[in-house]
Amino acid sequence: MQRQEMSSIQTDLDEAPKTLKFRNKIGYMIGDVGNNFLFDMGQLYLLKYFTDQLGLNSAVAGTIFLVAKIWDAFMDISVGTWIDNRTNIGKRGKFRPFMLWAAIPLALLLIANFTMPDFSVTGKLVWAYVAYMLFGTVYSISNVPFGSMITAMTKNSQERSELASYRQAGSNFGLMMATIAFMPIVTALPNEKVGYTVAVVIFAIAGVLCQWFAYANTKEVYQSAPKPKFSKEEIKESYKALFKNKPLITVSIVNLFTFSAFNLKLAVQVYYCQYVIKDLTAESLLGFFSIGMVFVSVFLTPFLTRKFDKKIVYMLGCAIWAIGDILGFFLASNTFMLVLLTSVAYLGNGFTSALNWALVSDCVEYGEWKTGIRSEGLVYSFFTYFRKLSQALAGFIPGVVLALVGYVPNQAQTATALMGIRELMFFYSATLALVTIVVMWKLYPLTEKRYKNIMGELLAKKSTGAVMATAAINKN
């Protein structure tokens, strides 16, 4: 009997069992389509809506993003703590119910951000701050459980990479549809301000339906038992454990770089198309070809991670990204070259985006191995805390830079303003992609071999604990 138990443990050491069905992967993918239908509208178009439709100063509008996203970052941590310490976990699971219940409030708040009443400038600012901060709060309640759920769906490293790739495919499809379809809907209506509202209502409804589809087609295979009671001291220990998790800290820092670069690029490209190459149709072409290229990297990621460590594939993506953007700064002076070189950059970005969620899931296991504390929600929310900070930068920096270089909405721009837009579009992201390569190489400690050893030790401890518990019961 002991030999059989050891054999079973050894099998687990080599690789955790596969638990995902195809519909689970598709369901999780569609969930992130919904996330992006609900989220990307603000990240892509809200700054331009504030500056060009509401007449807000670009620096003031950028500050709305800064304040709201810093608020969101703290909300992520709060939601993560709440999720980890829930005591009323029902048959729907620990994470899935949030997709069901948060979808409609999130959609309504998104619409509120693009339906500004005819207030004074002060009234518009108050509405913008309150609506966007409330939206971010509800998005945290929806998204933190969604991202944390990977650890409950599978413990198999390869399946986590695949699930992360499916999620990124969904994210990119949602983003692609947002860039292809949103502005054509806006400009098709005689009043652009109304066009923004109509477009966002369409995407909000689609986002809710996607979230509900994900809820119906995902499953929490590994459900943690609810904690009967938690103390402030236990919460403090959970927070302390985060700072002993070197892989998590490293991934969070590089995400501050890469995600701010990615989101800033998305926010600026509509300005680049309108004022630098004077072709607004290029925005839709970017959505189709450039973001479509991310699907290529998402497709390739599982194959590459079978041969190389996730860390190596991540750095490779950053290198491709940097090359595309450096060339873009010098050569993207027309629609063809802009789409071509931005496609190269997004191909590289796709590798980093596809791997982020798999890396964070690995960090959960590392944290449990290192400290004995398992906290999926807190780990994920710590990671998204940095993503929200990156989104704050992505909204704030363009607003400030556009103000400094003398941007004037709906007018011919000066040479200084055009150079500022060009530098925001390409140099910011290229520089941070290169910095990410250095940080990952120097600081990220997890290889596939080490991860499997860590999982083996965790499984062995749990198996030993189960054997001891069974022996104690039999003895009694």
UniProtKB/TrEMBL annotation:
GO terms for biological process: carbohydrate transport; sodium ion transport. Keywords: Cell membrane, Membrane, Sugar transport, Symport, Transmembrane, Transmembrane helix, Transport. One of its GO terms (cellular component) is plasma membrane. The chain crosses the membrane at residues 98-116, 128-152, 173-190, 196-215, 248-272, 284-305, 312-332, 338-360, 392-412, 424-444. The keyword Membrane applies. Its main location: membrane. Residues 20-448 form the Major facilitator superfamily (MFS) profile domain. InterPro entries: MFS_2, MFS_dom, MFS_trans_sf, Na/Gal_symport, Na/Gal_symport_CS. The keyword Membrane applies. GO terms for molecular function: symporter activity. It is a multi-pass membrane protein. It is found in: Cell membrane. This is Sugar transporter.
